[in-house]
């Protein structure tokens, strides 16, 4: 079968395929079918058209003895897969028409699919975008992760407070996985290590099986299909009949329940490592299973482990799979008999590590007690790795084993061939801060790979209106070569074209307004400016700076209601880690402000505030195309990159932001005149922290800020509990580590510039269109090409 053209699929063919799956795969007649049955039947019909290419990709990779890329990640924030499959196979028209013929609404069938929420935020979504780009670039690759039974918790609000509930995606049938009972590996924990015959022999005391579930990941045009292999934990002996026979049913079921715990639920923390043993168990479980699977495949092709670095590139998505270093050395040395130094060198030639955060509390380090109890042999190997590195670098001043800890950042760095940051600023800060000494010892190791996002999901699929205009203007080559968006730039000078651009945005805003009305009871004027901040809740992301500006804005509107304010709706969405009280209080404050401001008849035409519950990939796809303003307001030096910022720019929403993470590069690409910059730079942030009472000073210098804080502190938004937010005001007037007070005045200034720019519709449309035209570089295809060339040495087939 030649790979060139996909067999054309007509509406009739697809409709018949849906009907046959409905009957033969789900045993349903059209009359009896539920919406889920139709969704599953359509999904199977689409999946069928991926399978041939999947087999082809596997066969060609073996045939070419190609170097393989393995992406190890604790998180894959996939979202929905049906529309992504339809869009990548270019079957929208046929799918929509086929369902229409069957009396079904395309959007309603798609909306029945639950999100695969197997991630917390940026790191997990990046992994999902990377897999799609790896397939689009026909790069032989596999993702390895955990098949959590429960993804990121469902968020709802009770009296404005976040309430968490278990996420239950697997309660509905899942069309996008193939169970692989034959791909099953025994994973051990705990136990003893003893010497025999000059070799260390580890005898685990607890064992669990890792069973594979494969998901096909199709790229653009479905030319190539790679595999995402997720491991599910299964009991070695699932049922204890003896206990059952003596009536102890709980004991009988215990083994199965205990084993399942390992892949039961995603840890909902995205910045603070909890040091929980189960988390380390999860990290070792999927990493060890992945290495087993990788070496089984390698052994099936090659008989010289010396070629491992030549044929295999493993990417560690942050330190979460860092145990891969010691585990690979253990297998090569303890099991395969390769001497320690060679085993270490082979591992170092195969592994690479991406750092996604500089937040000290997010850098994983395990107490040697917890680590040694669970992984006694690995602790010994970490010590030998640390000793070997110390011997090679006697002048070094650090140890990965300081203070009875196992520091996973340093371990990953030492065991990696290449270490990369995720934006130019972040990579620079890595060299100056957390990895300064290691960078000095290994100046060649750290490289930058600025993040990217897949244009298929984040433009073509979620914004068909704008995509159509672009394709009408420059053809559809941009979908696989996003920097071709530059070709629309000359059209921006044409008033007619600008009108079509504005009309596409306007239509998206009308669609969102209808949805906000139907689902949130919000009456929103699509003419108003849609000002959106959507991301995980965290102090460094400064959602509290945003709501403080909203409060000051509201107060100013009340002072001068007829001052010709630009109507604006501030939309927030984002989850807080369940244990992160301050972030949860910011959510509650925003909901309290929203209640008061939206009920204020005098001001509600000019300003509304809304916090949408249960932010996830699908909600992002609904909000971003309708955005006018992208809020990227983190304290400079704290957001490693950001990827939402890229999605907004691509969808024609200018940014108000600081010089942080990839904002710096977005501003360079779109032009300073198309970016609303404010705030201190990273070096200024460091200097400002040294200033005595910096927050108090800022508040005294800005009566607008003082007044807004006063309102929060005195209970204007919590009349039934006036001091509900006293601790937030105290923090922002005192320690204010993230410099909300010090950046407020400039943020206010920038927001007023946004108002005047938005009021000049033609100027705004130009800025918005130029953001789209000049953001092509932020495609994850460009990012993956960088990894292939600079880190993996992998080729497209
Ligand atoms: C141990 C708990 C934990 C879990 C996840 C700590 C840290 C994480 C992630 C590294 C947090 C994360 O998602 N980082 C984000 O990664 C994105 C992709 O590179 C960046 O764009 C964001 O700036 C960064 O915050």
Automatic annotation (TrEMBL):
Cellular location(s): Cytoplasm
Keyword field contains Glycoprotein: no
PTM sites of type N6-(pyridoxal phosphate)lysine: 647
InterPro entries: Glycg_phsphrylas, Glyco_trans_35, Pyridoxal_P_attach_site
Transmembrane segments: none
GO biological process: glycogen catabolic process
A GO MF term: glycogen phosphorylase activity
Cofactor(s) required, per the database record: pyridoxal 5'-phosphate
Catalytic activity entry: [(1->4)-alpha-D-glucosyl](n) + phosphate = [(1->4)-alpha-D-glucosyl](n-1) + alpha-D-glucose 1-phosphate
CDD domains: GT35_Glycogen_Phosphorylase (cd04300)
Protein name: Alpha-1,4 glucan phosphorylase
């Amino acid at each position: 079968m030649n790979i060139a053209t996909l067999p054309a699929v007509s509406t009739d063919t697809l409709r018949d395929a849906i009907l046959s799956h409905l009957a033969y795969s789900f045993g349903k007649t059209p009359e009896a079918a539920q919406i889920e049955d139709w969704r599953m039947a359509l999904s199977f019909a689409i999946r069928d058209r991926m399978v041939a290419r999947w087999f082809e990709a596997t066969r060609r990779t073996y045939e070419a003895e190609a170097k393989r890329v393995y992406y190890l990640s604790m998180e894959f924030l996939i979202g929905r897969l049906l529309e992504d499959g339809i869009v990548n196979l270019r079957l929208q028209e046929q799918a929509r028409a086929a369902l229409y013929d069957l009396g079904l609404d395309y959007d309603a069938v798609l909306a029945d699919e639950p999100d695969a929420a197997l991630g917390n935020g940026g790191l997990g979504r990046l992994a999902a975008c990377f897999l799609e780009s790896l397939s689009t670039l026909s790069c032989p690759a596999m993702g390895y992760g955990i098949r959590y039974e429960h993804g990121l918790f469902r968020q709802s609000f009770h009296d404005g407070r976040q309430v968490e509930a278990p996420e239950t995606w697997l309660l509905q049938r899942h069309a996008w996985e193939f169970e692989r009972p034959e791909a099953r590996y025994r994973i051990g924990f705990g136990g003893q290590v003893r010497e025999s015959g000059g070799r260390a022999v580890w005898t685990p005391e607890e064992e669990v099986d890792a069973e594979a579930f494969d998901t096909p990941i199709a790229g653009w045009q479905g030319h190539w299909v790679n595999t995402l292999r997720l491991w599910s934990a299964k009991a070695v002996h699932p049922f204890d009949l003896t206990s059952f026979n003596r009536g102890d049913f709980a004991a009988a079921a215990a083994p199965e329940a205990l084993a399942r715990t390992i892949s039961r639920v995603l840890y909902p923390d995205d910045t603070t490592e909890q040091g929980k043993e189960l988390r380390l168990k999860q990290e070792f479980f999927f990493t060890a299973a992945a290495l087993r699977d990788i070496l089984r495949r390698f052994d099936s092709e090659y008989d010289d482990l010396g070629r491992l670095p030549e044929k295999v590139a493993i990417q560690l998505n942050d330190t979460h799979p860092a145990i891969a270093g010691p585990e690979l050395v253990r297998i090569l040395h303890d099991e395969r008999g390769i001497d320690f130094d060679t085993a270490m060198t082979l591992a170092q030639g195969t592994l690479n590590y991406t750092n996604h955060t500089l937040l000290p509390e997010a850098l994983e380090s395990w107490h040697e007690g917890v680590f040694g109890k669970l992984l006694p042999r690995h602790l010994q190997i970490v010590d030998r790795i640390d000793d070997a590195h110390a011997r090679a670098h006697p002048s070094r001043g650090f140890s990965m084993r300081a203070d009875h800890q196992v520091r996973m950042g340093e371990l990953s760095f030492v065991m990696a061939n290449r270490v990369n940051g995720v934006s130019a600023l972040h990579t620079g800060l890595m060299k100056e801060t957390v990895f300064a000494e290691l960078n000095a010892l290994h100046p060649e190791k750290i490289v930058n790979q600025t993040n990217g996002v897949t244009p298929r999901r984040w433009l073509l699929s979620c914004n068909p209106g704008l995509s159509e205009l672009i394709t009408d203007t420059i053809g559809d080559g941009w979908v696989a070569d996003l920097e071709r968006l530059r070709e629309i730039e000359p059209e921006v000078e044409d008033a007619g074209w600008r009108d079509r651009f504005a009309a596409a945005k306007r239509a998206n805003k009308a669609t969102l307004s209808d949805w906000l009305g139907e689902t949130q009871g919000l009456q929103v004027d699509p003419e108003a400016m849609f000002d959106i901040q959507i991301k995980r809740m965290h102090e460094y992301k400064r959602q509290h700076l945003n709501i403080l500006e909203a409060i000051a804005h509201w107060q100013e509107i009340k002072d001068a209601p007829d001052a010709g304010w630009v109507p604006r709706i501030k939309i927030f969405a984002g989850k807080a880690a369940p244990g992160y009280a301050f972030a949860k209080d910011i959510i509650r404050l925003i909901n309290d402000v929203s209640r008061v401001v939206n009920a204020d008849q005098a001001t509600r035409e000019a300003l509304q505030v809304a916090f949408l519950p249960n932010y996830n990939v699908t909600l992002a796809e609904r909000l971003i195309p309708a955005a006018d303003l992208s809020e990227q307001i983190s304290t400079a030096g704290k957001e490693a990159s950001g990827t939402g910022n890229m999605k907004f720019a691509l969808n024609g929403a200018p940014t108000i932001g600081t010089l942080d993470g990839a904002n710096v590069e977005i501003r360079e690409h779109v032009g300073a005149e198309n970016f609303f910059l404010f705030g201190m730079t990273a070096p200024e942030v460091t200097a400002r922290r040294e200033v005595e009472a910096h927050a108090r000073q800022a508040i005294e210098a800005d009566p607008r800020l003082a007044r807004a804080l006063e309102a929060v502190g005195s209970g204007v938004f919590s009349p039934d509990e006036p001091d509900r937010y006293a601790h937030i005001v105290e923090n922002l007037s005192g320690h204010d580590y993230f410099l909300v007070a010090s950046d407020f005045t400039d943020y206010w200034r920038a927001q007023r510039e946004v108002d005047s720019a938005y009021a000049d519709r033609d100027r705004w449309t130009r800025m918005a269109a130029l953001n789209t035209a000049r953001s092509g570089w932020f495609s994850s295809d460009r990012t993956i090409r960088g990894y292939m060339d600079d880190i993996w040495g992998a080729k497209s087939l």
